[in-house]
Amino acid sequence: MFTHHKLDVYRKALEWAGSVERISGGWARAHSLVDHFRRASESIVLNIAEGARLGPGPAKVVTLDYAIGSALEGAACLDIAEVKTLLPSPEARTEKRRLLEVTRMLIGLRKSWGHAAIHEESHPDPLRGLTPNSEVLFHHERLDVYRVGLEFMRWLCSLPGGQELSDRTYRRLDQAATSLSWNIAEGNGRYSELDPHRFLEVAAASAVKSAAYLDRCEQKSLSVGTDRSPGRELLGRITATLSRF
């Protein structure tokens, strides 16, 4: 038996990865969400296994930083799937609660592995201030900039062709909008002192790319007659907020 096989959190993460494969199996691969979602679920499993292999020290703890970051990315993917109507709200909520349990276990294991190796008080808890029965399950859900990112995705899906993503430019726009949301979620909850800023920088870049792809949609006469000002306004709010972080 490998060391990671002894960890309950590994078993639960493996089960959740299987669930991700099941629920995303029928989704069109045109959605950038599909690859992000599956990669995040696998990352949790692989990083727990790698951390269990390593001896005591900072490197062991970093593997759980990556696993926790991937769990936050998975939570954002569930929100995006719900916005896109790929996943019914009750099922999305159920899967998010399962992921929440994994995340809490990862945080607990991180504290155990990190004893005397890191200073916990210098790292924020991505579930801080929340209870198991809270309507908001992850801290990033409270952020206005995160909610606006989901609102932009909802607006994009409302465009003619925005849900089917039949055009390459729409697929690129969907990719940027997906990156925007999960990088905000992951950056907000990252333990590493340097990573949060990097993820929020990627989110800001994704917002600018989204605006540029909107211009390309207009140039290519996609969704003729559609008012794109609401989308641009949402992206403007996001970039303005991220610039203050």
Notable characteristics:
245 residues; mainly alpha; 68% helix; 0% strand
Q: What would you note in describing this structure?
A:
This protein is 68% helix and 0% strand. It contains 8 helices and no strands. Helix 2 runs antiparallel to helix 3. The longest helix is centred in the first third of the chain and has 26 residues. The termini are far apart.
Approximately how much beta-strand content do the residues carry? under 5%
Helix/strand/pairing class, anyone? mainly alpha
Straight-line N-to-C gap:
45 Å
Largest sheet: none
In the predicted model, the low-confidence regions spanning at least 5 consecutive residues are: 116-123
- SSE pattern: HHHHHHHH
Helical stretch count?
A: 8
Average pLDDT number: 89
What is the percent of helical residues? 55-70%
The total of beta strands comes to 0
Fold blueprint:
Blueprint: H1 8-24, H2 32-53, H3 58-83, H4 89-113, H5 144-158, H6 168-189, H7 195-219, H8 229-242
Helix pairs in contact: 1-2, 1-4, 2-3, 3-4, 3-6, 5-6, 5-8, 6-7, 7-8
Short recap of the structure:
By secondary structure, this protein is mainly α. The chain has helices at 8-24, 32-53, 58-83, 89-113, 144-158, 168-189, 195-219, 229-242. The N and C termini lie far apart (45 Å).
